[in-house]
Amino acid sequence: MRSFRAALTAAATAAASVGLALTGTGTAQAATPLPAHVFAPYFEAWTGESPAALAAQSGAKHLTMAFLQTASKGSCTPYWNGDTDMPVAASTFGSDIKTIQSNGGDVIPSFGGYTADTTGTEIADSCTDVQQIAAAYEKVITTYDISRLDMDIEVDSLDNTAGIDRRNKAIKLVQDWAAANGRKVEISYTLPTTTHGPGDTGVALLRNAVSNGARIDVVNLMTFDYYDNQPHDMAKDTQTAAQGLVDTLAELYPGKTSAQLWSMVGVTEMPGVDDFGPAETFTLANATTVYNWAVSKGINTLSFWALQRDNGSCPGGAAADNCSGIQQNTWDFTHIFAPFTGGGSTQPTNDFSVALSPDSGTVTAGKSATATVKTAVTAGQAQTVNLSVSGAPAGVTASLSPASVTAGGSATLTLATTSATASGTYHVTVTGTSASGSHSARYALTVTGGSGNQCTAAPWAKDKVYTGDQQVSHKGHTWKAKWWTTGEEPGTTGEWGVWQDLGPC
């Protein structure tokens, strides 16, 4: 499953008991409501990265901030990631959130998550005082001046009926407080799902909300991690899961129209390979299908776990917090989903992707290697893509046939070596360029039996300690350490890792 990390004062408790949350730095004035249709990917708040910076880089104006939980079981005080150094205060993410809001976006703080839900630190599981739970919710709302809270309730928390009842009672108190202060506050529940809708425990949670008079504005299904050992079309499974949810909501809210029920739906995908493995892979083509479906149905929220995974730095890998495990360009999924905010009435601007199949090969010096350069339309319409190749070392001739394709077409990359090519591993980059920009993919060519010059830097040693600026050779490349390291293999730590690739040698 996803790996997540994540005592109000007596005065605050008293304030909550009379329906006023005076904690936090904000006021009870109304925050700007979220759009009726919003794309809000999850941001992993424990990474030390700036949410405002990643929002600007990716183009995601709205973020779901994960997660808020207590530092220990039995506590009533939430912290970001359960870290007491990250309190609910302007000093933690305050300036980032203000920047996001000033740029026309907002954040959705999310309580819970897998770790909190399995350790008793989800606040409604941890705290038995409904008034203090409500006061904690209100403090987050006023501190960051936001208009929606998310409750990510999974595994053990779904079985904690006492916690479910406390949470929904606290939500009702918050909604009464918000109404009394002229403030709009929305509540979303993020829940696991089957391919045909939420399970029995999820339905029971929603039924309890209705019985407590707690208004649930959005039910956000995690349409991944099915763990059912079945074949999956992830886009189709999203649609059948959402239909099952709407059928459930129709029973819980018999007075709502079909359009109103669909407007309560949210879906959260997991780009690329999810925790189950390659059998549950959400592709860029799936994303385009889900986007078009979401627009047609008029659902409320599109999201994915998580913004930091929206890159192709680990193609062929397993699920990870920082990459998708598939061939893609950075922010591909974000660019497909981003136009959904505000109504999804505009189609994404033209864009494409470039991938290589295979993306690596081994040849004896004097022989040639080939790979298929695959392009695909990831947004908008097909366009002409001009292809080029760079990074070929001495003794290797690279060619592309054809050198220009229409997005969706393919070409052949040929890498011809000579007997004088030095043995080693080389990374050759194929770049596609069109009117919308450029995207690249890399091919790892390993040459054996060559008679050319070898690397001069000392070979990397697993047990040796390296400090900043020290150089090593490894797999035909020279690498420079950016800082102190030991045991980290060059070529495995990614673009932002400790080893800088200085190129083939």
TrEMBL record:
One of its GO terms (molecular function) is hydrolase activity. Residues 1-30 form the signal peptide. PROSITE patterns: GH18_2, TAT. InterPro entries: CBM5/12, CBM_sf_5/12, GH, GH18_Chitinase, Glyco_hydro18_cat, Ig-like_fold, TAT_signal. The keyword Aminoacyl-tRNA synthetase does not apply. It holds the Pfam family Glyco_hydro_18. SUPFAM superfamilies: (Trans)glycosidases, Carbohydrate binding domain. Keywords: Hydrolase, Signal. The keyword Iron-sulfur does not apply. It comes from the Bacteria. SMART domains: ChtBD3. Residues 37-344 form the GH18 domain. This is Glycosyl hydrolase family 18 protein.
